[in-house]
Amino acid sequence: xxxxxxxxxxxIQKSKKKMSNFVGFGGEEKSLDYLTVGxxxxxxxxxxxxxxxxxxxxxxxxxxxxxxxxxxxxxMIPVSALPEDLQTRYYRRKRAEAGVLPEKVDSEKxxxxxxxxxxxxxxxxxxxxxxxxxxxTEILTQWQGERNGKxxxxxxxxxxxxxxxxxxxxxxxxxxxxxxxxxAYKNExxxxxxxxxxxxxxxxxxxxxxxxxxxxxxxxxxxxSKPTVSWCYRTxxxxxxxxYPEFLGEMPSEMCxxxxxxxxxxxxxxxxxxxxxxxxxxxxxxxxxxxxxxxxNDIWVMDNYTFDVITQQNGNMRRMYITxxxxxxxxxxxxxxxxxSPDSNSTLxxxxxxxxxxxxxxxxYFDNGREFTTLDIAGGQKCxxxxxxxxxxxxxxxxxxxxxxxxFAKVTNAQAKVxxxxxRIIKEQFCRGNYGYCGGNVTERPEILKNNIxxxxxxxxxxxxxxxxxYADNVFNVAEYGGGEARFRGMTAIxxxxxxxxxxxxxxxxxxxxxxxxxRNAGFQKIKRDGVFVAYHGEKIWYYDKNIxxxxxxxxxxxxxxxxxxxxxRIYDKEDRFLxxxxxxxxxxxxxxxxxxxxxxxxxxxxxxxxxxVKARARELRGDASLTQREGLKYVSGRNTGKFKIRLPKxxxxxTANEEPTERMAVGAEATEIxxxxxxxxxxxxxxx
Length: 689
What we know:
The chain is about 40% helix and about 15% strand. The protein is of the alpha+beta class. It has 4 domains: about 15-80, no CATH class; about 120-270, no CATH class; about 300-500, 2-Layer Sandwich (Nucleotidyltransferase, domain 5); about 520-590, SH3 type barrels (Roll). The strands form 3 sheets. The protein has a 6-stranded antiparallel sheet with strand order 9-12-13-14-11-10, with no helix packed on it. Helix 2 packs across helix 3 (about 50-55). It is elongated and about 160 Å long. About 25% of the residues are buried.
C-alpha cells in the first residue's frame, strides 16, 4: 500500500514540470480537480462510451489534454463543471480516501486553544496535497492510538518518530513536526498536513494571552521564588508535550517569551514576583509631603539599623545596632545611640541624647516595632501588652510628660520613613570604610574580611562609637542640603537647621529635668505586703519602706525608676503627684533553698520591726480606753430591758394526738418516776468498768 502511495506521489511531483505542455494548462499547475472519462463514468454510474459521447457533443465542459508520455489527446473533465450533487459525491470520496474525517469537537467542551491559521477548503486542495494529507492522517491516527496507553509519553514520541523515519526514509518528521501536524489536524487545518514547513502558523510570533501555553508559563513565572525565564520555558514545554502535544507546534521560542514579558505592566511583575510590600513601596502612589510649612524640631523620625560592621569586644565578634533620630526639616542627624540590642532603652537613650543637643521636638514619628510601642512610651496608643480592662487606667507616658505628640507610621509604608534612606547613606559612606565591614548579605561580604578578623584589626565597640560620632557631626550633618526648598540651596544640613530654628521657638530642658521626666514606669500597681516591684529582665525587684509601706497596703500607685540606678524608685499617685522614694529591699529576695543565716536573720528583724510598729500604732490609736466586750454587752442589754415581750393572739388552735395515750407505760406496770441524771451516771460507770 505504501509503495503504491509513494510511487503515485513521486509521479505527481515529477509531472509538475510537464503540466505546462497540457492544452489549456496555462503554464502552471491548476488547483482545480479534473476527472478522466473512466473516473467520470464511475462517479456518475454510467458507461465510458456514454461519457465520451457527451464530451464529444459538448454537453459537458471538457478540456483537451495531451498525455506527457505518449502525447495522445484525452478528455479531462473539471470537477467544477459537474452538477452540485456529483461534486459533493466526488469530494466525499476524496475526504474518505484521505481519512480527514476527525471526530467533531463537543460544543460544551471547546478546545482550550484555537489556532489562528487560515483554513483552506478541502475542495481547494490539489491531488498532491490530498495524498500527503492522507499519509499524515494515517500516521497521526496510529500515533495517538499507541500513545494513549503509555506512561512516559515524551519518550514514546521519540521512539515513534525514529520508527517512522526507518519505515519512511523519504518522510520529513520530528517530534516538533509531529506535534505541529497534530495541532493542525485537531483544529481542522487539513491543508497544513501537506506543508512540512508549518506555514499554517507562520508569522504568529506573538503569544495569545488566553492560550494554555502562556497561562501555564505565567503560573510558573509569577512566583516570589523568582524562577528564570529559561527554567519556566523548559518546564512548560515538558508539560505541554505530555498533556497537550497538539499545541507544541504552536509554542514559539524562548526569546518570544522574553519579549512578551517586557510588554507586561511593571506593577503586575512587581506584585507577582516581589510581593505586596514591594508593590506598595514601588508602584502604589503616595503623598508627597511638603516641608515648607514646618520648622526645625517640628518632626523627628526615629528608627533602628543594624550596622554592616563586625566589631570585637573581649574576643567576641558581634554586630551592633544604632537607633537614629533625624530632623525632617533639615535632614540633620540630631541624635543616636549604638547598642547591643535595639530595645526601648536604646530608644530613650537616643532621644535623650538628641534633646540634650537640639532641644525637645513637637512630634515624634515612630515605626511600629516593639522598641517604640512599650507602655511608658506609647501608652495605650500602640502598646500590645495592656489588657482591655486596664486601657483606661494608664499613667502618663514619658513623651506626654515632655509634651511630645506621637505619630506612628502606617504598616508597610516605607516611603514615609525617610530615616531608612539615611541608613543607606550611612552604609555607603561609613560602614564600607571600616575593617569589619561585612555587607548586608553574603554577596556583599568582601573577601578581605577573613584576613582582617584573623589579624585582629577590626574595630572594637568603643572605636565604632567614636568614629561614628565624628562621622555624624563632621560629615553627614555638614553635607549639602538635599531637600526640595529652593531657599536653602547651597547650604549644609546644619545651616538649614540653624536658619529654620531661628524662625520659631526652641523648647529645652536641663539635664536634671530630663532625668526626672524620662524615668521609666510599668503602669499602676497596688502596694502589697512586700511593697512595690519593678520587673527587670524577667525578675521582680522589690522596694520597701519599713515606716510607710505597711500603712498603705492595697493602695494603687505608679512606680517610676531609672534603669541606670535601680537602688531607689519614685512612687506617684494616680494624679501623677509624687509620694515617696523607696529603697530596694534586697532582704526580701532570697533563693528557694537559701541557707544564708545573715539574710534570714535580717528578714526576721525586719518582720519583727514591722510587727512592733503595727502594734504600737494600734495602741496609739486605742489610747487609754478600757471598755471590754462584756461591759459593752451589759450597757446594750440594759438599754433594751423590757423591750422583749411575746403577745399571743386570741384565736388559739390546740393540737392533740388522736387515740394516743399521753404517757407510755409497760403492760401491767405501775407508773414510776424516771430520773435521767441517774441514768447518765450509771452509763458512765459501766463505761469506766
